[in-house]
Amino acid sequence: MQTKAFSELFPLFNTAAPETLEWLLSVGTEHEYPEERAVLMEDAWGNAVYFVVSGWVKVRRLSGDDTFTLAILGRGDFFGEMAILDESPRSTDVIAMSPVKLLSVSAQRFIQTLFKDPQLHHRMLQLMVRRLRLTNFRLQRRQQPPAVKLAITLAFLGESYGHKTQKGVAIYQISHKDLADITDISAEDTGKIMEKLESKGWIEIDAARKIMYLVNFQQLTNLAKKV
User: Fold this and answer.
1) CB within 8 Å of 154: residues ≥ 6 apart
2) Residue 30's pLDDT is what?
3) Most buried residue, 34, 125, 170, 218, by CB count within 10 Å?
4) First to last CA, the chain
């Protein structure tokens, strides 16, 4: 991957120096995983930072035989950055939801890069603060109606990882359970709301290709803004 394409794909590197990007690409390791494969097990957290070049992954919390999806990440995002500074035991893993391509940079080399490039260091802090604000927002919206909360989730996924097509903004066809987990509503409510959105023509599911089209993205965004 060329440095320009790398910086355009990952907002983290928008302000990084060209030599920083060249060095990261030279020391990074490429990975490819099929659908449903574990890409990072709980005992591997803290070893590297991972960048999603293509595909979709989910971060799961493990509790015995039960799992709970904490986050869904798509192309242009990254994970593992906080674990390199925290050596406490982890009870989460990362699973490929679709065929996925990743680029990993070892913890030691990534930390060295942050010290060498102040712009990248500052940008990393900005994105980490943004994630904390999103977490706070998620807690604040708990009292909102399930339909509004789900619209917020779909709008966020579309804005963050979707791509525009003639049918609308396309994202991965995420299961109702995963949507319910990250939205903090029941799977039953999720199923009912998704059926209603589909009947109204706001979303369209291509099950064969595992794509969800957010056909009426503006309406979803408007619904997400309701309090």
Assistant:
1) 171, 203, 214, 220, 224
2) 94
3) 170
4) 43
Q: Give the number of other CB atoms < 10 A from CB of residue 5.
A: 11
- Concatenate the DSSP letters of all residues of the chain into one string: --HHHHHHH-GGGTTS-HHHHHHHHHH-EEEEE-TT-EEE-GGGTTSEEEEEEES-EEEEEEETTEEEEEEEE-TT-EE-TTGGG--S---EEEEESSSEEEEEEEHHHHHHHHHH-HHHHHHHHHHHHHHHHHHHHHHHGGGS-HHHHHHHHHHHHHHHH-EEETTEEEEE---HHHHHHHHTS-HHHHHHHHHHHHHTTSEEEETTTTEEEETTHHHHHHHHT--
Superfamily the domain 3-139 falls into: Jelly Rolls (2.60.120.10)
The yes-or-no answer to whether 3-139 and 145-224 have a common fold is no
CATH tag, 145-224: 1.10.10.10
Taking the C-alpha atoms of residue 164 and residue 220, their distance in angstroms, rounded to an integer, is: 15
Domain locations along the chain: 3-139, 145-224
Residues whose CB falls within 8 Å of the CB of residue 71, separated by 6 or more in sequence, listed in order: 58, 59, 182
- Asked whether the whole model's pTM tops 0.70, one would answer yes
Contacting residues for 111 by C-beta, under 8 A, at least 6 apart:
84
pLDDT tens digits, residue range 91-142?
789 999 999 999 999 989 998 898 889 989 889 888 888 888 877 777 777 7
Q: Are 82 and 59 in contact (CB under 8 A)?
A: no
β-pair partners for 165: 168
